[in-house]
Amino acid sequence: MDLELILMQLFSGLALGAILVMVALGLTIVFGMLGIVNFAHGALFMVGAYAGLWVAAQTGSFWWALIVAPLAVGVLGMLIERFLIRPLYGRTPDDPLLLTFGLGYVLVEAVRITFGTDGIPFSAPDALQGVVDLGVGYFPIYRLFVMGVVAVILLLLWVALEKTRFGLIVRAGARDPLIMKVLGVDVSRLWLLVFGLGVGLTALGGVLAAPMRNVSPEMGTLVLAEAFVVTVIGGMGSLLGAVVAGLLVGVAVSMTALFAPEMATIVMFGLMALILLVRPQGLFGRPAGA
Amino acid sequence: MAMLEVEKLNAWYGPSHVVHDLTFRIEQGEIVALVGRNGAGKTSTLRAIMGLMPRVEGRVTFDGTDLLPLGAHARFRLGLGYVPEERRIVSGLTVRENLQLGLVAAARTDERAAIDEIAKSFPRLKERLEQQGTTMSGGEQQMLAIARAIISKPKMVLLDEPSEGIMPVLVEEMGVLFRRLRDQGTTLLLVEQNVEWALNLASRAIIIDQGELVHQSSAAALLADKDIQDRYCAV
């Protein structure tokens, strides 16, 4: 097997991993801050893709879809937090888990009723069509674009979390919400914003993923499983872990598809099992009680 | 007008009624010691005043504002600071970042000046501004918790067992600091197990036992009354 093919597959894996990073970041931010395992996360990824499809159809512009859909779905996420999840704070972790599990089904059915059950193609804009010569082979421009967008989002997130007052509050609130309350921070408002941010990120992942696959009501199901795998491998609540593990899983799946296509999906679960055996808290997670 | 006025305060943890009909007032610029045995309800009283108890009844007025309808964050914004017993230095953040947390909701915008100013009162922290807060000694962490609570210049601070587990030399430093805060007009409500130290700092003392107020007098009078101290404050 030639080196060019392997390198091309590696790039494909990074593009796949970039989408996983977006989804897993949202999942891990919400878990790290609010302690909620959001089972509706995959469905919200799918809603993001449909929202992008709808905005693109209305405006005729992929670029508007890329901006408006994540913002709109992020606002939907804030409404979900405010009216459905917030009343469950202080109760057992099972309650929000069950609620988001059910909510995921509701969102999928709502989309089925509105848009139908068949997959709908979503084309990348003309400017992002075609391939580019990377020196070792030709690679789809759109996939490079996805990797670039995710890199920019990661940079913005890093600056927001590490270099701003808002980021300081978020980091501290994730570790100790009580101390933030007694230092004057309205933690419920903070959680609202964080939940909206997490949902907005997965919706952006949905819009970015749409041209790489058909938009369908079920598209969030596998993504949710993949995002959980990434989050567990990276360490629940760890942003760096979500990034590293997302890219790792993307590359592992892509490379396995090259050598043993039937094992491609299974490999990420094997990787997760291996990591859990060696390091139960994940690559960058904190041990329980630390 | 009193800085803090507590009337018939009751508080519960689930079914447990832990504070019973507490009534007392604290004037501006006072240091008041709230003492009693372990489990007497001192921490619960502070938590009820700060808005951290799940169920509270009665009336708490701070500088003329009724506190009970407000969340803990809104109470801080009125000028009520709180240093919890467990210190709660945020892991993963430096000393400087922990101090910045004390300013995020405050009106003060001159962050650098505020940290320089607080560092003068806490020279041990000044040397460690870029160190992770949780890697410092227990005493230094306590100093950081106090500095974080007062950096925004609150009108009143609730302090829960600040001397617990701290080296005597740091406890002395803390006493000097509390007197200076009082002289600057800050009101302090001090929950303490170290009764003698607290009574030497305070002007008045309140004793609670099983959630009820059982004694209230000048600190000097209680310091001289070993019988009451033995009855209600002995560990």
Write the layout of secondary structure elements.
The complex is a heterodimer of chains A (290) and B (235).
Chain A: H1 3-34, H2 41-59, H3 62-85, H4 94-115, E1 131-133, E2 138-140, H5 141-163, H6 165-175, H7 177-182, H8 187-209, H9 219-234, H10 239-259, H11 264-278
Antiparallel strand pairs in A: 1-2
Helix pairs in contact in A: 1-5, 1-8, 1-9, 1-10, 2-3, 2-4, 2-8, 2-9, 3-8, 5-6, 9-10, 9-11, 10-11
Chain B: E1 4-13, E2 16-26, E3 31-35, H1 42-50, E4 55-62, E5 65-66, H2 72-77, E6 80-83, H3 95-101, H4 111-121, H5 123-126, H6 138-150, E7 156-160, H7 168-183, E8 187-191, H8 195-201, E9 204-209, E10 212-218, H9 219-224, H10 226-233
Parallel strand pairs in B: 3-8, 3-9, 6-7, 7-8
Antiparallel strand pairs in B: 1-2, 1-4, 4-5, 9-10
Describe this structure in words.
The complex is a heterodimer of chains A (290) and B (235). Chain A is an all-alpha fold and 290 residues long. Chain A is 73% helix and 2% strand. Chain A has helices at residues 3-34, 41-59, 62-85, 94-115, 141-163, 165-175, 177-182, 187-209, 219-234, 239-259, 264-278; strands at residues 131-133, 138-140. In chain A, helix 2 (41-59) crosses helix 8 (187-209). Chain A is globular, with a radius of gyration of 19 Å. With 235 residues, chain B is an alpha/beta fold. In chain B, helix 3 packs parallel to helix 6. The termini of chain B are far apart. The A-B interface holds A 165, 168-169, 171-172, 175-176, 178-187 and B 50-52, 71-74, 76-77, 81-82, 84, 88, 90-93, 97, 100-102, 104-106, 148-149, 152. Chain A: It is a multi-pass membrane protein.
